[in-house]
Amino acid sequence: MSHKAGQIVLVDWRDALPKEPNKQRPAVVVEDDDLFDPSYPNLILVPLAEDPHLAIADLSLELPPTAENGCTKLSYALAHHVSTTSKQRITGTSSRIGLLGTVPVRPRARQARPARPLYLLFN
């Protein structure tokens, strides 16, 4: 199954280590289709939570319930818990956050760094 940036998925993190999410919870896909080859086995996700105490003000996005996102309660996208997760843990849904809350991620072309004089490397 193909997953798109902004799609809300269900993730099974029930065998997580301490200090990691340790249950099945929704998350938002934040990677764009062009970032990795479709055979790449993981997705970059931001987990969602209903508990406002888990949300850090500058690092979270409030998601009010809408028909499009399928949330039944006010939720928070916890950007400070962004993670790469195996696709085997993920179940897709038809829910998504609006385009206003997503920015497509595109690979950047590498720019060559100007050569530095050797003496600068040792000072």
Description of the molecule:
The structure is a single chain. It contains 1 helix and 7 strands, in the order E-E-E-E-E-E-E-H. The protein is 3% helix and 32% strand. Residues 101-109 and 116-123 have low confidence and may be disordered. Strands 1, 2, 3, 4, 5, 6 and 7 form a 7-stranded antiparallel sheet that branches. The chain has 123 residues and is mostly beta strands.
Bin the helical content: under 10%
User: What is the tally of beta strands?
Assistant: 7
Residue-averaged pLDDT: 78
Structural class: mainly beta
Task: Encode the helix/strand succession as letters.
Answer: EEEEEEEH
What fraction strand? 25-35%
* N→C terminal distance: 53 Å
Tertiary shape:
globular
Characteristic key phrases:
about 120 residues; 7 strands; seven-stranded antiparallel sheet; disordered C terminus; about 5% helix; globular
Explain briefly what this protein structure is:
The protein is mostly beta strands and 123 residues long. It contains 1 helix and 7 strands, in the order βββββββα.
